[in-house]
Amino acid sequence: MSEVKIPKDDLQQYCEAILGKSLPEDEAKIVAETLVDADLRGVTSHGVQRVAGYLKRLEEELIERSTNVQVVNDTYATALLDANNGWGQVAAKKAMELAIEKAEAFGTAFVGVRNSNHFGTASYYTRMAAEKGYIGISMTNASPMMVPFGAKEPSLGTNPISISIPAGEGVDTIVLDMSTSNVARGKIMVAKKNGESIPRNWAITKDGKQTTNPDEAWEGYVLPMGPKGSGLAIIIDILSGVLTGSLFGKRIPRQYDDPYPQRLGHFFGAINIASFGDPDVFYQSIKEKIEETVSSEPSEGFERVLMPGELELMKTKSREENGIPISKEIFNELIETGLKYDVDINQYLSAKLAE
Q1: Residue 1 pLDDT class (50, 70, 90 cuts)
Q2: Which end of the chain is more exposed for a tag (fewer CB within 10 A), N or C?
Q3: Taking each helix axis from N to C terminus, what angle separates 25-40 and 123-131, rounded to the nearest 10 degrees?
Q4: Do the strands 78-82 and 108-116 form a parallel or antiparallel pair, or are they unpaired?
Q5: Bridge-partner residues for 271, per DSSP?
Q6: Catalytic residue from among 41, 46, 118, 263
Q7: Are the CB atoms for 239 and 91 separated by under 8 Å?
Q8: Are 48 and 19 a contacting pair, CB within 8 Å?
Q9: Which parts pass through the membrane (predicted)?
């Protein structure tokens, strides 16, 4: 058995039960939902394989059990929230909800979060905005495990950014969600757990050498997506970290190695399309943009051209129908984590697992 397929609702309830042993019920639900949503979309690096690591940080008192979000600054179209070392997903969800509320009244809004923690996938929050008809923007800084372009020493996180754009009724949302590195560092963690080698352009060793060994890569540093990825990571660090008063660059403790709260920063935006013109005209133009993109003649080696987020949407539809594939190694880790918190996975499985 190389993997098992678990129904989305079963996986959600199981992870929620584990997290609920340590977190308030509503916060456990939010965190579990973001992790399962990542696996549903095929973003395994930010999926349920994070549960054990999250709880380890909680046990080491590096993150609070409940999230006390406070408003630090508040204007008509901006706000700054303090997560007080609470759960990144909880603070981020509140921040995007506030950005949407302000954008409804004032056209465009930006909300920053300081003193936070890992918040999962950036697109989870931008899709919140798009579902309500707003353009959503989300970004965060992260542990300094990426080298700037041309450097041997890390001073950047993989610093992801997401933008989601609603495309009108009956048309799939355009979802850009990308790290500024060649790969999210969590994918190295997945390869490490599964005993798999990695591509040579993912990371370098501590000595600055290329490697395909995930253990060496985990001890080393990920590579930026060229000079453009490096530059974008720097800007995201400034908006998420410097602007919000969070830690940034080398000052951020490493998530899995340093015994200190991370105090990450996030930055969110919401744009009310109606503030710029007739939404119906916008949606018609979006459909034309989508059509001219996907109807482009594919180059050699490609079957067709995809819109941002289309591949993840295809995976979502398949996994909602057939279950979410979880590797044997990660599945066993989930079972062990559940037993540690007196949660039996068999109580949450609605059917025999597909292999």
Answers
A1: very low
A2: N
A3: 100
A4: parallel
A5: 108, 135
A6: 118
A7: no
A8: no
A9: none
Measured CA to CA, the distance from residue 264 to residue 249 in angstroms comes to: 10
Picking from 120, 157, 159, the residue whose alpha carbon sits closest to that of residue 139 is 159
Structural domain boundaries enclosing 193: 185-223
Q: What is the pLDDT of residues 292-343, one digit of tens each?
A: 999 999 999 999 999 999 999 999 999 999 999 999 999 999 999 999 999 9
pTM of the model: 0.93
Sign of CA dihedral 325, 331, 337, 338: positive
- State the CATH number of the domain containing residue 3: 1.10.1530.10
Structure tokens at 219: 């001890």
**Which residues have C-beta within 8 Å of that of residue 304, sequence separation ≥ 6?**
294, 298
Tell me the C-alpha distance between 94 and 75, whole Å: 16
Active site residue 46: no
Angle between helices 310-322 and 25-40 (to 10 degrees): 110
Integer Cα distance of 156 and 244 in angstroms = 17
Domain count for the chain, please give it: 3
- Residues 113 and 254 reside in one and the same domain: yes
The total of other beta-carbon atoms located within 10 Å of residue 346's CB is 8
Evaluate whether 186 touches 203 at the Cβ level (below 8 Å): no
Q: Tokens at residue 8, please?
A: 């989305």
Question: Token pair for residue 145?
Answer: 């495990």
